[in-house]
Amino acid sequence: MVSIAAANFARFGKREEDIFAISSESALPIVDKYRDAIDFVVVSNSYSGEFNDISGLNNLLTTHLAMDSVPSMRVDNTSGSGGSAVLVAKSLVASGEAENVLVIGAEKMTGYPTKRSTRIIASLLPPEERLGGPSLPSLAAFMTRSYIREFSPSRESIAKVAVKNHHNGALNPYAHFQSEVSLEKVMTSKVIADPLRIFEYCPVSDGAVSLLVTSEENSRSFGSKSARITGAGASSGTSSITARESLVSIDSVRESARKAFRASGKSPGDMDIAELHDMASILEIVESEDVGFFKKGEGWKALETGETSIDGRFPINTSGGLNSKGHPIGASGVAQTAEIYLQLTGQAGKRQVKNAATGFSVSMAGFGNNSTSFVYEVD
Amino acid sequence: MVSIAAANFARFGKREEDIFAISSESALPIVDKYRDAIDFVVVSNSYSGEFNDISGLNNLLTTHLAMDSVPSMRVDNTSGSGGSAVLVAKSLVASGEAENVLVIGAEKMTGYPTKRSTRIIASLLPPEERLGGPSLPSLAAFMTRSYIREFSPSRESIAKVAVKNHHNGALNPYAHFQSEVSLEKVMTSKVIADPLRIFEYCPVSDGAVSLLVTSEENSRSFGSKSARITGAGASSGTSSITARESLVSIDSVRESARKAFRASGKSPGDMDIAELHDMASILEIVESEDVGFFKKGEGWKALETGETSIDGRFPINTSGGLNSKGHPIGASGVAQTAEIYLQLTGQAGKRQVKNAATGFSVSMAGFGNNSTSFVYEVD
């Protein structure tokens, strides 16, 4: 069984340092402790070429970390890169190709006008749909309108995702935003793509996070606190937005979760905590339904009852989610695994959920054209 | 045991089509035959962002191929991307995470001034060394000078790599260059980085190639001609050129080959054919020594004796190598595996080597800061 045996963050946010420094900040505590054991480095990163004029980031990083002989590669899946990188690390360990894999998720995106960042990220849309001018934020607005039309949630319940996740982020020393926001402030903030407002979107962030992915046996011999990955599932959905039957459900999220639960022998109801890909507020709600935590059309009610709050029955995005923790593209999926690991091993500090023994994460690419889900357990 | 069960090329060269069309051209014959079986797509590509203004190429490709639910990811390791992608596919199959993986290696690089291409690719060099202005071609020239100083080969023997590989390329319908070149023409062609001349470098190419990576059992049940991957090895070396002890040996090539041979239980002397990463003529010679086919300093003699010619005792780069087949970055490593597969299964047409039952390939990143080696066998 493959386990996570260490996780460490470099704070997400606007960082002055370059991508090497941020990546190293996240990796060094793990490298210092496990240097002789690490035999593969998987770097989760999407846009080092576009944002940083760097290619082969993985090789430059092993050199930077003085791990010159350790093999490495870069894994990319846009916003879902982290899930793919963890899946590669898991497969390398499970197949015996490697024993102890250092996963580094990193992106350095700030320092450019938002328009340029948005344009770079929109390069993941099908060329024929890019011509029409949609960007990822506007697609989330379409989804919100469809969801409201179809299920009549209160508008406030959607905004409450941002309130909840900013509350959690304020408890997370690695989050981009570390202050609470009131419902009133969210609901009166600048409209980005009608009806969604600025506090309902993740910010553009720099950041990095590292994991040690290893076997359960190695983890035990290291004496590390560890969490097992008991199920993984990957799936795609069409990249074409216009070809989708529904805008209130994401095929790849649903299918990847189904595979991960089937592989683990667990069901959504068995989970204690979850990290979902809340690039926009509505996405947390839609995904919470698609993976099976709530019935379709009813996920928004959990925001009204407080069920998914950090002190609720089933906390979602205890890390602050992308919404408050930030979304350095290549780092985000790795950060989800890191958060579940920290929670399940009692290392989540002020945001610690008591007695959490099972967890779920879904790392989503683009606007849902690819997802990787994981189920985690500790004894 | 993991096997290659199919390979198909889209011709390398200057192509008018976009990267989707070229990739599909290589993948469709495999997709048509194995559509229901393929459960993962691994795309080997480095520079779709920089050259084509496209991110998330893997997801756009599954949509383009009407494989909307099949999960995918992009694997990058600059010039060595293909080796990493095949390693990921092998690990996905060996770990049970996938059964039948379609690997698509693709790059679309032409249409820009060579200076711009060279600058983009130089973004893989350490930032502090980029300031000094070296490019990959100039590093190969340094290597050539060091090799000549240390081992006194005839200058012609180095140029003969280009003569041999152009001869092989002329037999390969998928090669960028399909005509022979005389030693005299090579030796009097334009100097690119003294002492290396233009025919000794790979061209800038577009191209794609696809593989089906599966289990031996599945391959048998498909009734496919197949070749087993009996050993794999990955290793890095420092990205810093100035930090290297020697410029006539490449640590990552040596170490990755050692690992692959150890894993397979075979030795270099057991191999019938090999594909090496001949971005420049000198590299074929240096690598042929580093992986253990010849003693250090003696690889050049094989070009004099004709030992590594297609009708010699031990043919190297029957495909034409990067030198003549071309070097669409993300495709090159996948193309090596494809060539060995075609040779070992008797599908190599005019360049077929008789009775080849074992093969070796090394896919190298950058100027050797990362390599992935494979040993292949058929019964």
Task: Give your account of this protein's structure.
Two copies of one chain form a homodimer. With 379 residues, chain A is of the alpha/beta class. Chain A has two domains: 2-112 and 205-222, Peroxisomal Thiolase, Chain A, domain 1 (3-Layer(aba) Sandwich); 135-200 and 228-377, Thiolase/Chalcone synthase (Peroxisomal Thiolase, Chain A, domain 1), CATH 3.40.47.10. Helix content of chain A is 39%, strand content 20%. The first copy, chain A, is built from 15 helices and eleven strands. Chain A has helices spanning 19-34, 48-52, 57-64, 81-94, 114-121, 127-130, 136-151, 155-169, 183-187, 216-222, 251-264, 281-290, 301-305, 321-325, 329-344; strands at residues 2-13, 40-44, 72-76, 100-107, 191-193, 196-197, 206-215, 227-236, 273-275, 358-365, 370-377. The longest helix of chain A has 16 residues, at 19-34. At the A-B interface, helix 3, strand 3, helix 4, strand 8 and helix 11 of A face helix 3, strand 3, helix 4, strand 8 and helix 11 of B. Strand 3 of chain A pairs antiparallel with strand 3 of chain B.
